Amino acid sequence: MTSHPLTDLTGLDAYRSKPLLPGYPTDRRRLFATQDDVHGALMLAVSSVTVSQTLAMYSLDDAALVAQVVANYHAAPGGMPTLVVLDESCYKTNEGTRTAAPLLALRGQPNFRLSVGTSDKGGIQHLKSFVGDGAFLVTGSTNWSKSGESTECNELEVAINAVLAAELTAYIESAYSWQMANCPQP
């Protein structure tokens, strides 16, 4: 059995500006947007997906990451199982609508689900989370946007933990179900 491409997170170390501290956990990496190459780390993580992908994003205007999610979907026979949950306020901006267009084009395709809306309390859907293959998760305050990845004070954490990945996936699934039942879809 082969290991997952992100079983060893040392590949992410190339995107950090500072070396790891002694005793740094082997199952996670944290990067900071104003000092590290967060975009590069995100591209590495998202491009390593081979089985399934789950994404919940507040602000999404990084076209390269969206293109990678779409490429991942098309790489699997019948379409890689993909779930995308977006915030309606960010989606409704010109940039948000334009960037999300390749995802919206996949609506109705097998194994692809997308919703746009609010939180279940009517607030913003503020997650900035990705789960790859049920094996790793990407979380933190970093929106998938140029400013979120480079000029704003944001953190990004990549962790290998199937239990935490399952918990996050279940939460995003519930957000999707709520948005589909309660929010007009584009």
Description:
- The chain has 186 residues and is of the alpha/beta class.
- It has one domain: Endonuclease Chain A (Endonuclease, Chain A, 2-Layer Sandwich), CATH 3.30.870.10.
- The protein is built from 6 helices and 7 strands.
- It has a 7-stranded mixed β-sheet with strand order 1-7-6-5-2-3-4, sandwiched between helices.
- Helix 2 packs parallel to helix 4 (94-104).
- The longest helix is centred in the last third of the chain and has 21 residues, at 162-182.
Primary descriptors:
186 residues, alpha/beta, Endonuclease, Chain A, 34% helix, globular
What does the secondary structure layout of this molecule look like, with pairings?
Layout: E1 28-32, H1 38-47, E2 53-57, H2 63-75, E3 82-87, H3 88-91, H4 94-104, E4 112-117, E5 128-132, E6 136-140, H5 146-150, E7 155-160, H6 162-182
Parallel strand pairs: 2-3, 3-4
Antiparallel strand pairs: 1-7, 2-5, 5-6, 6-7
Helix pairs in contact: 1-2, 2-4
Radius of gyration: 16 Å
* Percent in strands: 15-25%
Q: Cα distance, first to last residue? A: 42 Å
Give the overall shape, derived from the CA principal axes.
globular
Strand order of the largest sheet: 1-7-6-5-2-3-4
Number of domains: 1
Task: Tell me briefly what this model is.
This protein has 186 residues and is of the alpha/beta class. It has six helices and seven strands.
